[in-house]
Fold these 2 entries.
Entry 1:
Amino acid sequence: MRRKVLFFLLFFLLLGQNDVWANERIVTSSLELKDAIQLSQPGDTIILEEGTYEDAFVINKSIILRGKPGAIINGPTSGYPITIEAENVTIENLQIEGGGSQNAGIYIKTNHAQITNNIIKNVFHGVYIKDGYGNVIENNEITSVEGVENNKGFGVYLVDAPYTRISGNYFHHLQDGIYVSFSDYCAVSNNLIEHARYGIHTMDSKTVTIAKNEINNSHNGLMIMQSDELYITENYLHSNTTIDGAGMFIFDTFDSVIKANVVKENFKGIYFENAKRNIVEFNAFIQNDIGFDLAKDTTNNVISLNNFIKNTKQVISRPENMNLFTKDGYGNYWDDQRMINLDEDSFIDFPYKGGDIFFNMTADEPLLQIFFQSPAVYLWNQIEAFTPIPTKHFIVDEHPLIKAAPISLGNTDPAESNEENKKDHHSFQIFLLVFFVSGSGFILWKTRRGKDEV
């Protein structure tokens, strides 16, 4: 019996030998760091004391590289400061900078690396992953080359890197915060991205989750291209105001869900081109120049239960587009919609008609642009909304909501916006009703009088 017990103890000891015999090495110079990497065994931890470690370091064993405060890896003028060639490597608490003019601070060639709590700066790309899966980039600050505007790279650059998780990072002053290329099943969440060309950029990827990120002061918050089956939810995309920029730019994208996002104070809230069979629901379009731009070849999308509040233009659509603005009897909330609700249910009694006919007319007659935002155009749109004039509207919401949909709007309370807009439009609505009733009465009176005189 004693022999069996000793046998099992020896078996479990050998099973966990990597943890039992793992070493912790402390280094103070570049030479010591290179020697420690060479001598280390899988599971070992190398701790870098405060100081600058200048060279390019290749990690080919499953180890932990951990820095104490003030530990800096400074790469040479060519190559990568850190290259990871072994699985299950952890890099944490380091400042990493330098390297070649087209290289990354960290280059990952394999799987299951953990890059956490680092500052990566003055590099071209921050982290470059190619042909590796299951890597984690978490809680880092990443920026590109300092003082250079036209030669900046990406914060995280994925190429054939499925199942990557990128979470809790701060990206700023670079070309793209996160570029996901040919990389499926990735998760990008809880990142803050500022001053980029594109905050999050996907290309030829599918089943990517983009959730709870904040992106501002960039050209496009999200640049989604040739990607399918994405789930984009609870992002706050604001102050992306460059000409032709957008909170979301969605191109050649199909069968995706865009839900519970706030797009606020952008040039365009969301832009669709060749976007099909997507679901757009419970989003807030607030104070954008253009709330939602449905460009060419955008069809078969379902757009419902969204709030359109204080956009200069609520929605623009090409006349050939065919999209559904009502789902299961629920439309969207439009703050410029008249509030007539005689049966006191959850819906306004008249459909919302839009798509900006005037905007599309200016494409054929550019001289009409002199009337942009003029009282005449505003009055025309209001009259069309109140009356069944037989004009060609590019979108029709059959069941517009009487109140804003209950979704998170960041710093904007939908109830307050709803009440404020009711006040703003109430007096004008009364004027229009009085105008139409008086005008109709006058026309009827003149008609009857003419008949009587005959």
Entry 2:
Amino acid sequence: MARPLLVSWGMAATRDRVRAAAVPAEELAGSFPEIALPIRPPYPPMEARSASRLPTGKGWLYEPKWDGFRCLAFRKGRTVTLQSKHGQPLDRYFPDLAEAFRALPFKTFVLDGEIVIRRGRREKTLDFDALLQRIHPAASRIARLARETPASFQAFDLLIDEKGKKVADLPLSERRELLDRLLADLPEEGAVVLSPATLDRKVAEGWLRNPGGELDGVIAKQAGSPYLSGDRSAMVKVKRLRTADCVVGGFRWAQSGDKVGSLLLGLYDEAGRLDHVGFSSSFTAEERRELEPILVPLIEPPGFTGKAPGGPSRWSQGRSTEWEPLRPVLVCEVRYDHVSGGRFRHGTKFLRWRPDKKPRACTFDQIQAGQRAAATRV
């Protein structure tokens, strides 16, 4: 079942990281076309819980964790539609992929996979920044980028086969065999690609030790499980870097007061309250200036509805602790080192905006799941 891994993947470079796609997920909202299939969009994809290491024991299928946009691809005849992880239509942002799906020899399917953009010599690196650039209101810009940086789709699961039959209820091992046969004749460097998979844990550990240091992680799935829509119980993700998707609930001005100093980060608790969990201030002077027109139009109380940023402390050393509350619509991914008392112990590193993530999906499960996963490993 294992196939050679032909491309490397990784965290995006920080070029244009502040400006690129700093838009709320709600702006991606839209309607889907009618499509006569047993599974129709919006359909919640199967999800993963976080873990600190790969699960052991028999019955696990391992896959690369691609650094892209999760996507469900639906086709019935000439009708093709692409759905994001959180149920938003992606067709207008990836017209090149929609055409690639229409060009496939089989005219009915629902595939689960990841949208990526390859860059560099022989197209062997992945560029998340280029993906973010696609989330743009101007159709002309999207069309130009589709020509200059075409996207591809890494397919790793099959929910509806080419006959229109629902196969999501079959065990993953059987779905993977059907997927392998369906995509076997497609070119390995085409727009729709079969993502590698292996039953060998040592191979998966090798992916995590990728010497290029660009690996986003590895996914482990229970081979005997059906496709569990919206459920995390049969799928585990292990990342090389500890990252979390956070809501920007507010910001502080720099000491000089003429530019943004730090983003204030939040996660939703079980009661639906947005708690302040830390900050990110890892920006250049130019990036701080670019943040102002992004954040200021969103100033709106209360910002955090649970635990809010605290007042002055003996550690403040004269610095202002005043902050501006924001409408909680922006999501960013940050890298962190430790969590203590439900907060990031130190400042985090801003990695990128995540317009493909809904704010309400940014919960404490991300930073607590590692401990729970350790207790439930097979």
